[in-house]
């Protein structure tokens, strides 16, 4: 097949653009990887979650007026603690990690929806104004028990 000169030129431009794009992408990924960790970013050894504070004692603690702190561990296939209970109007600060693979943490009926990564400590807060049972679901496929991975927050 005969390539017209003009086609060759366009092909050349196309390849140059692609190379340029990949170079930019590579530089971006590199500089992002090199960026200093943000102050709230910290990690734990996922194999030692059960021995590492605060994850050695998962549970919910009252820290103020209608203010709670929940330490949670996501694992295949569940969450620790199994059930949380707070009075209506309470704010819960969640601190969590995964002790094995990537899990999800979605509180149905709220805008809380995040990934829980092994070794990464995630923080998120939510105020539960409406009484009810809030379902927490794993929305990252994590294995055969994925669809059974859930827990509940009871707001009274
Ligand atoms: Cu944990 Cu899906």
Label this structure with key terms.
1 helix, 156 residues, alpha+beta, five-stranded mixed beta sheet, elongated, binds dinuclear copper ion, single chain, Immunoglobulin-like
What is the CATH class designation of the largest domain? Mainly Beta
Specify the structural class: alpha+beta
Radius of gyration, taken over Cα atoms and rounded to an integer in Å? 23 Å
- Shape descriptor reads elongated
Q: What's the CATH H-level superfamily name of the largest domain?
A: Cupredoxins -  blue copper proteins
- How do the helices and strands follow one another from N- to C-terminus? HEEEEEEEEEE
CATH topology of the largest domain: Immunoglobulin-like
Low-confidence stretches are none
- The helix content, as a percent range, equals 10-25%
Rounded to the nearest angstrom, the distance between the terminal CA atoms is 76 Å
Number of strands: 10
Tell me about this structure.
It contains 1 helix and 10 strands; from the N terminus they run αββββββββββ. By secondary structure, it is of the alpha+beta class. It folds into 2 domains: 1-35; 46-155, Cupredoxins -  blue copper proteins (Immunoglobulin-like), CATH 2.60.40.420. The strands form 2 sheets. Strands 1, 2, 3, 5 and 8 form a 5-stranded mixed beta sheet that branches. A 5-stranded mixed beta sheet has the order 4-10-9-6-7, with no helix packed on it. β1 (59-64) and β2 form a beta hairpin. The longest helix is centred in the N-terminal third of the chain and has 30 residues, at 5-34. It is elongated, with a radius of gyration of 23 Å. The model has no long low-confidence stretch (mean pLDDT 88). Dinuclear copper ion (CUA) binds at residues 77, 103-104, 138, 140-142, 146, 149.
